[in-house]
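Morning. Coffee machine broken again, so started the prediction first thing and wrote up yesterday's gels while waiting. Chain of 235 residues, entered below exactly as on the submission form.
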Amino acid sequence: MGTLINAIAIIIATLIGITLKKGLPEKIQKSVMMALGLGLITLSLGWFLSDFFTIINDDLSTSSELLIILSLVIGAAIGEWIDIDLRLNRWAENIELKYKLPPLAKGFISATLIFCVGAMAIVGSIEDGISGDYSVLVIKSLLDFITAMILASVLGIGVIFSAISVLLYQGSIFLLAREAQGFLTPEVVRSLSMVGNILLIAIGFNFMEIKKIKVANLLPALVIPIIYFIITSFL
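Came back before lunch.
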């Protein structure tokens, strides 16, 4: 239910954002993207640090440093080898040409990454699958509504197709959580959330045009913690 609410919120917000796009000068569009990027970096960094630092016996300690670095490095190597970014852009461009649609690649890819790789998408879907509590996904839906409206006002109709990505991604996590509750320990969820929030920070850099990062090519990094915990569970 939570994932369905999330997808509907994105669709409605995109339609509103497209209407607003007609009246936004290019100067304001750039400022909006700069502000959104700054917000993404700030929020994602805060979420990352809340998972990364823990207080044990009044001492501040960190967790999963090596796993995070390995996940990003291995994930980047796999992503560049497959070139996920190029494949996604080509797929979206082919759809544009085939159905004579306006440019949608940037909006679809940017929105998909924002809505899918964050901590709330992972934690909310797991809680919904395990206990049926989708309150986190409802909160995420409100945040995604605002974000989708802003993105669509700048990047256009492509944002609406990210609703499909949300359904597939969060729906898969929901089903996994129902079938493999014992595996999804707090440590596994924390590691996934930290890697996901680092990817959100990278998206923020892209929006602010500080550095062009092919975030789609970093997506395999989200799989590495799962593989790691599966292997260590047999040791």
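The chain has a mean pLDDT of 89. Going to sketch it on the whiteboard this afternoon.
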